[in-house]
Amino acid sequence: MPTQATDPTPAQPNDNLSIARAARLWPIEEIAHRLGLPGEAVEPYGRGIAKIDLTAMTALAESPRGRYVVVTSMTPTPPGEGKTTTAIGLVQGLQRLGHCAAVALRQPSMGPTLGLKGGATGGGHSQVLPMERINLHLTGDLHAVAAAHNLLAAMVDNHLHHRLAPELSPRDICWQRVIDLNDRALRHLVLGLGGRGDGVPRQGGFEITAASEVMAVLALADSLADLRKRLGRLIVGLDRDGEPVTAEQIGAAGAMTVLLKEALKPNLLQTLEHAPALIHAGPFGNIAHGNSSIVADRIALHAADFVVTEAGFGADMGGERFFNIKCRASGLTPDAAVLVVTVRAMKYHCGQHRVIPGQPLPTSLLAEAPGEVMAGGANLLKQIDNVRAHGLTPVVAINAFPGDHPSEVAAIRELCASVGVRAELSTHVRDGGEGAVALAEALVEATEGVAADTDAFHYLYPDELPLVDKIERIATRLYGADGVDFAPGIRERLASWEARGYGVLPVCIAKTHMSLSHDARLLGAPNGWRLPVREVRLSAGAGFVYALAGDIRTMPGLNASPAATRIDIDDEGNTVGLY
Amino acid sequence: MPTQATDPTPAQPNDNLSIARAARLWPIEEIAHRLGLPGEAVEPYGRGIAKIDLTAMTALAESPRGRYVVVTSMTPTPPGEGKTTTAIGLVQGLQRLGHCAAVALRQPSMGPTLGLKGGATGGGHSQVLPMERINLHLTGDLHAVAAAHNLLAAMVDNHLHHRLAPELSPRDICWQRVIDLNDRALRHLVLGLGGRGDGVPRQGGFEITAASEVMAVLALADSLADLRKRLGRLIVGLDRDGEPVTAEQIGAAGAMTVLLKEALKPNLLQTLEHAPALIHAGPFGNIAHGNSSIVADRIALHAADFVVTEAGFGADMGGERFFNIKCRASGLTPDAAVLVVTVRAMKYHCGQHRVIPGQPLPTSLLAEAPGEVMAGGANLLKQIDNVRAHGLTPVVAINAFPGDHPSEVAAIRELCASVGVRAELSTHVRDGGEGAVALAEALVEATEGVAADTDAFHYLYPDELPLVDKIERIATRLYGADGVDFAPGIRERLASWEARGYGVLPVCIAKTHMSLSHDARLLGAPNGWRLPVREVRLSAGAGFVYALAGDIRTMPGLNASPAATRIDIDDEGNTVGLY
C-alpha cells in the first residue's frame, strides 16, 4: 500500500494548506451569535477573528453551564498523537449530533513555527482557521505577554541602576527576559555593559515567551483584578537580606496589567466546519501547566453545551496539571476526559522502534503488528489509570492514521474493554466531524453518567498536603516511580516556602513529556525507578511550585535549515511555506 | 492670571484624558464609509480601529487625488510645539468647511510612553482615539516589526553557529536586536555565552523598535512586493572578504515579509470630531526619516480631498526628509506645507531662558515679551526658508497656548508678513476644529494657488548628486552651516558605496532636533559653524544613507520614577495614569 511506504502522517502539510485555503470562513459575528455571546462583547480583529470582552462572563452568568471535557493522551511519540485534531474533530462531531460545542485551545508559539515544527492549527479536515493568523501574531497576545514581562525586566534593571529601595542583589535576580523566537544566542548573556549610564553589568538571558510566568498567569487569571493581583506577586529576585522582591515592590504590576488588558480577552475563531474555537494563552507544558486559559473555558462553558479543551502532552503532564492546577484555580470541575491514542504510539511504546525527533517515524512502525500494540499498551493502561486517579473514566479516542491495520485497532479496543473503558476509532482528520460522530456519541454518553451535583471528579491531593508529599504523590501515584530523590537543600527550600505561606500551592513537575518517567528513553510504563528532583522554583504569581526533574530547555535554537528560510510570499502575495 | 502661574501646557494631561473618556466613538465602518473606502478592504480590529487592506489602493486608483499637506514646525522646545494637535485640529477645521479631510500620523513608540513622556495622541479637543490602544500595542505593528527584525537577528546568529555560507565575520555584524521598551541594560551586551550549543559569543545590543531599519522599510514600502524587495536588501554584516551580506542571503526576507503582512495595512481611527485618522509606522526622526507610511498617505489621497500628514521634528529634520526621502520614494508631491510655531518657542529661541528636558517650561517664558518673540524669530524665518527651498511657501500655524499675549501673536504675524507668509492663530486644542477654521481657510487658499500640473515643489538635490555633496547641500542650504567636516575615512566609505551603486540614494542626517545645528545649545538660526560628520551608515533596505552628526541614542533608559509606576487599573478596571 503506497500510503504505508511513506511518512504515515495522515494528511501532508500541503494537504492541510490546500484544505484550509479552500475553506470559506463564516463572519466571526455569526459564529459568536450561534454561540449565544452578547454582540457588544464581540470585537472583530480582522477577518474571521474576534476578541471576547470579559463582560461576556457577567452577561452569561445565569446561563446553564455546559459539559466540560478535557482531551489528553497517552505518552506521545515525538510528532504527537493528534490531541489538537481530536479536540477539533470532536466538537465538529458533537455539532453534527446537534449540540452547540466549542473547542478551547492554546495559542501556538511563533518561534517554533518559524523554526522546525510548522504550525499548530490541527490537520486535514479538523483544523482551526485562519491558519496564518493563528500561527503568526494572532491578535498579539504573545507580544503583549512579552512586553509586560520585559517591562518588568527593564524596571528591575532600572531599579538596580538607580539603587532604588528595596535594594536588589544583582546576583540574585531570577527574572529573565523573553522573546517569541528560537534564538539560542540569547540564552546566556552579560548585559548592562557600556559605561556608567548603561546599567549594572550582570548575567542574564532570554527564554521563549511561552515559558514566561506572565503567560502562566494570563492562563490562570479569572478576571482583570485577579490578573493584577497575580502579577503583583511575581518574584523578581532577592534583596540584600535574601528576602523575595515582587513586581509590586518594583512598581510594575499596574502597568503590566494595562499592557495585558486586550490579551486577557479570549480569541474567538472557527473550525473548518464553523464550530467556535477559543484560542487563548499558551504556557509551557513542562515548567508551567500547559493549558489554555480559564477565562476562555469559563465563557465558553456558559455559552455552549459542550466545551472541549486540550491539555498539553500526556495525562501525566498536561492532564495532571489540568486537574490539579487549572481546575483548582478556576473551581471548575470536568465532566469527562478523552484520552487520545494512536496505533503507532502503542507500537512505539513496545520499545522496538528507534524514533528520532524532527525526523519522520520509521517505516518499521507501519508493519501490521497487533502484538506490538498489546506490548505497548502498558502506557495506555497507566494513563487511563492516571485519569481515573482523579475520579473520571476516560473515553479513549483512537486517532486513525492511514497505515493502521484493523487488527491493531481491535487490539486497542480489546485492551480498553479489559479495564472497562470505551474506545472509539475517530477519522476526523480524513472525514472532519463525520469521522468523529462515534467518538462524540461515546462522550455524550460518558457525560450523561455524571450528575452535575454528584460529580466524581476530585484532585489528586489536598491543598494542605506538604509540598514534598505533593511531589511524591504525583511521582508515585501517576508516574509510577518508587519514590523521589530530592537534591541537597531542596527539602529545606520547600520548607522555607511553606513557612512563608506558599505550602498551599499545587506543584508542577518539569520533566520530559516523552516518558512517564524523567528519562525519555524509558517507554511503556516503567517500573523500578526513582524521580530525581534537582531544583525547585516558585511561580508565586501563577500560583504553583515547580520541581525540575530533567534538563528543561526554555529557549530553543534553530537548525541549519530553519522553516523560516522556506516561508515567503508568491507573486500574488499569498504566503507559501507556512503550515 | 492664574493660567500663567503654572505650567503653560494648554490642556493638562488629565483634561486630555477626561475629554477622551467623554468622547463617543463612531463605528469605524462609518468612518471608513464616509472616507469612501471599499467595505471589503476595511477590517475592524477592536472598537474604533480597523486595518485597511492594500486592495483599497487598486480599488481607488481611478479616484481623483486629494491635496497633500505636510505639517512641520520651527525648531521645537523640549516638550514640542504641537504638530500633532495642529495636524488633527486642521483636518477637523477642514471638515467644518465641508471638506473630506484625513490626518496621517506616525504610531507612537510604547517604550517612551511607559518611560517619561506620556502618549502621543494629540491633546485637548484635538485628539485621536482610542488613546489607550494607540499608545499601547495598537494593532501590533510595532511588535511585528520587532519580530521580523529579531527573526533576522536570530537567523544571523544561527548562520554563525552552523557556519553556513556565506561565512559571516562575527566582529562585522551590524544587525542589532530591537525591543519596544526603554531598557538601557540591553544597550551593550555579550551574547552567545554558555556552551558550544549556545551560539557564538560576540558583542551585540538592542535598540528601540522605532530605530529598526525594518520600521523605516515599512514606512517607505509602497506594496507588499516592494516591502519584500527592500527587506531582501537589508545589510546584516560583512563576510570574511569584507563584502556586505544581505537578509536575502541569510534566507530571512521571505519570512520577514510574511511576519509584516498585517503590519503593512494602515490603521484607521478617528479624531474627537470623527475625522478619519490613519496611524501607521513610526520610524525614528534622526537615524531614519521620521515620517508615517507611504501606503497610508497613498490610500488617503485617493479617498479624501485633503490629506494632512505630520513630519517629525522641525522643517530641517522631518520636513526635509518628507520632501527628499519620503516623496522621492513615493513619487507623490505635496501641495502645501504648514509650519507650526508657538509664542513660547519663539521666546525660547531668543536664548534667554533655561529649559530642562523632562521638566515644565520655566515661568520666565510666560511674561509678555514681544521683543523676545522678534529676537527668536530668526529660527522661524530660517525654517520658512527651508520649506521654500523645496518650492513651497508654508502657511504658518500659531498654536495658541493659554499664556500667550496678543502683542506676541501680533509679533509673529508681523514677522511672517515681512516675508510674504500667511500666519493664522489656531486654538484647536481648546476649541477643536472650530479653532482651526481660519488656519484651514488659509490652507485651502494656499493649495488653490497650486495647479496640479505646474507644481512648484522640487527636491533639494537630484539623485545623481554625489553623496558628499548631498550632505553638504543639506548642511549649508538648510541648517545654515559654513560647511561639513567629514571624519577620516568617511569620504572613502561614501565613495565605496557609490561604486556599489548606492550613490543615487538620498541622505538622512542624524543630529539633534533641538537646534538647526548639531549642537542643541545653539538656538535661533546659528551662523559660523561647521557640521561634523563622524560616521556614515547605509540603510540599503530602507533606501538612504545616514550620516551621524551627533550622539544619537537609539535605546532610551528609564528615570528613577518611570511613568509605568503610575499606570494601573482602578476598581472598575479602567486604566489610570496613562496619558
TrEMBL record, chains A, B:
Q: Name one GO biological process term.
A: tetrahydrofolate interconversion
In terms of CDD domains, this protein maps to: FTHFS
Quote the catalytic activity from the record. (6S)-5,6,7,8-tetrahydrofolate + formate + ATP = (6R)-10-formyltetrahydrofolate + ADP + phosphate
| E.C. no | 6.3.4.3
Alphabetical list of Pfam families matching this protein: FTHFS
Copy the pathway line from the protein's UniProt record.
One-carbon metabolism; tetrahydrofolate interconversion
Q: Which Gene3D superfamilies match?
A: Domain 2, N(10)-formyltetrahydrofolate synthetase, Formyltetrahydrofolate synthetase, domain 3, P-loop containing nucleotide triphosphate hydrolases
UniProt keywords, alphabetically = ATP-binding, Ligase, Nucleotide-binding, One-carbon metabolism
The residues that the entry says bind ATP are: T77, P78, P79, G80, E81, G82, K83, T84
Q: Name one GO molecular function term.
A: ATP binding
Give yes or no: UniProt keyword Transport.
no
Tree of life domain: Bacteria
- Which family is it part of? Belongs to the formate--tetrahydrofolate ligase family.
Q: What's the protein here called?
A: Formate--tetrahydrofolate ligase
Source organism of this protein record:
Halomonas icarae
Lineage, uppermost ranks: Bacteria, Pseudomonadati, Pseudomonadota, Gammaproteobacteria, Oceanospirillales
| Gene name per UniProt | fhs
